[in-house]
Amino acid sequence: MWRRYQPRPNHARLFRNRQKCESWQSDFRGKILLQDGVSYFVGVTRRRTFAGEEYLAIYLRPDLTLPVGAPKLLQKS
Question: Which of 30, 43, 39 is nearest to 9 (CA)?
């Protein structure tokens, strides 16, 4: 039986970006929950140096969506 995914602090899950249309968009994307409880979107793109060596470019962007059950004071009207 499958259990619902529970994010663990300092762990990320990334999935192939099947909606990628442009070269600047991430190859993989997902979320990470840091130890302090702050959630970030994660994007990973495969790139090559001028010498032809492959590397991964990673970005973190704050997840500004509110969790279910967040206090009404935090929600925009």
Answer: 39
Range of the domain at 44: 27-63
Report the domain count for the chain. Answer: 1
Model confidence over 5-63: pLDDT tens digits? 777 888 888 999 999 998 888 999 999 988 888 889 999 999 999 999 999 999 999 98
Give the global pTM: 0.68
DSSP code of residue 10: T
- Residue 55 belongs to some domain of the structure: yes
- Report if residue 43 sits inside a domain: yes
